[in-house]
Amino acid sequence: MIMTNLARLNQAMGLQRSSASSKQKVQPITEVLKNDENSGDLSLASITSNLHDISNPNKPIPSDLAYNSWVVEHPSALGSFDRMMKAAKGKRIVVFLDYDGTLSPIVDDPDRAFMSDEMRAAVREVAKYFPTAVISGRSRDKVKEFVQLSNVYYAGSHGMDIMVPPRPLRPCDANNYTTAMDIKGSDVLFQPAKRFLPAIQEIRTLLEEITKKVEGARVEDNRFCISVHFRKVREEDYGILEEKVKSVVGKYPEFHLTLGKKVLEIRPSIEWNKGHALEYLLDTLGFSNSSDVLPLYIGDDRTDEDAFKVIRSRGQGFPIIVSSTQKEDTKACYSLHDPSEVLTFLLRLARWRKASSSSRSLAQIWGVGSNLPRSV
User: What is the CA radius of gyration of the chain?
Assistant: First the structure.
């Protein structure tokens, strides 16, 4: 009976074993519980109590067949973890993370998109072992305020506001972008859209004025881009809001409008996005020309697709999308269902690296280690 219940539990949670041809390994739920140090009093009984009569084999368990089919093509990063880490052996992983919808849940009030203490601890632990950066559409100061960690790098405004360690300014930096290389202690700010700041503030003022007439609309100043949130806007008012926003953006030909998760975003029309930010950070950290580097990017929104494309073009790395629904046009290779799975994945990643370090140290003591990871 226990095995039957476990099988039905796995099925209900979307952890069905894929066909042999896909070779996808599914992580048993018991392993998740055992490995999650932040699970507290979580137990198999407490999970099963939230499912509808799991002990009744005749009662159907709802499932999203389309999503399950999509996951076969974009396998779970948890179920594929061992295979991914086998590919990472002898290489260096660099971790990139989106914020909203990845490290924190999507919420109605953008000012309350707090990450949990458990997630913060997991990111802190990952950053101990791997270079780690958070790339967000939020302003850099805002996302730093949310994350509250000093051992990660921050890129705000979809990568248009990056704080990194200092390095020589390359010719392409000066030729292709208007930059602001402002020394902040031992770090440097890279801001390719700084010349647009006056116009951005004009647009923000206009948007704040027109959105006052649309109940539930909210304007967020993200320094080098502006977000108009409409999660609380009535469905019948969305069309009105969109037209008002378009009328403002139309007056500024150097800007364009994009759509995110319940948000309209206004950005300068420069060739710069999260993918460019990923490349810039890799370059700044000294990894751009390294064939043994594996960038790992976890994100949930359309803007993260630019980073996924960069990883795919490199031919190595792990682009991971966070989604509870199928996304046919994603460039991600792997998937995670929600931020709770992101948490589990980051914890496993940190534990894997810690175990690798312990094994390498022990091997060095005994004078062996030719088969151990050189660097991760």
Answer: 22
**pTM summary value:** 0.75
Residues 6+ apart with CB under 8 A from 302: 258, 259, 260
Q: How confident is the model at residue 166 (pLDDT cuts 50, 70, 90)?
A: low
Distance CA 102, CA 300 (A): 6
Question: Hey, is 142 helix, strand or coil?
Answer: helix
Sheet strand arrangement including 92-97? 182-184, 187-190, 161-164, 153-156, 132-135, 92-97, 293-299, 318-322, 334-336
Rounded CA separation 54/33 (Å): 19
* Residue 190 confidence class, pLDDT cut points 50, 70, 90: very high
Are 67 and 324 in contact, with CB atoms under 8 Å apart?
Answer: yes
Least reliable range by pLDDT among 19-33, 74-88, 227-241: 19-33
The burial class, CB within 10 Å (0-12 / 13-18 / 19+), for 223 is buried
- Across-strand partners of 93? 294
Q: By percentage, how much of the chain surpasses pLDDT 70? A: 72
Instruction: Report the side by side order of strands in the sheet with 226-229.
Output: 218-221, 226-229, 263-268, 255-260
